Task: structure prediction
Amino acid sequence: MPAGPAMARPGSMIRRGTGSPVDLTAVVLLVVALAVCRPAARARRLEGITVADADYLAQLHHAARLAETATSPDAVVACVRGQLVGLLHLRGCRFQYCRLLGHAPRLESDGAITVGRGTWDVERLGLPDQDIELRVFAGGHFHGRYLLRPTPGRTPPLPARLVAHTLAGQAGAALHSTWTQPASRP
Result:
């Protein structure tokens, strides 16, 4: 009984239809290489995500601890401002207390950017080339906003935008605590 392709020895030549001979060993190696590369690439991608997630978590933890222990909410506002610059790869960032002037694009709690009444397609268009406001609320009160100055060509991923909103909430909690603390008594 003649040996078919499944019975061929490594290094033997097989003929497929009327085409040229194919080296079975090369075909097997190609299939194995493809099978190994896909999981390896996925593992590298997941490793990158894990590192980013750990960094996001560390930033949130730092801001939360500072919000609990800082003697001044301004320290938390400044810390979060610095974190936002690094996290979102911004050219700049500033905080305005209790102002809502103008109609700047806004970073929402779901990570979306709204411009006017519409949603900006961040994934396709990147960030708008103007200041973006990130409003700071706590206890149902507006305390101020961060004005984020994007770097052209840098689009922060959705998880980074979500973390940015949570960091702003930590600044809001610190600002709100000064409004809700009872006056000290002599």
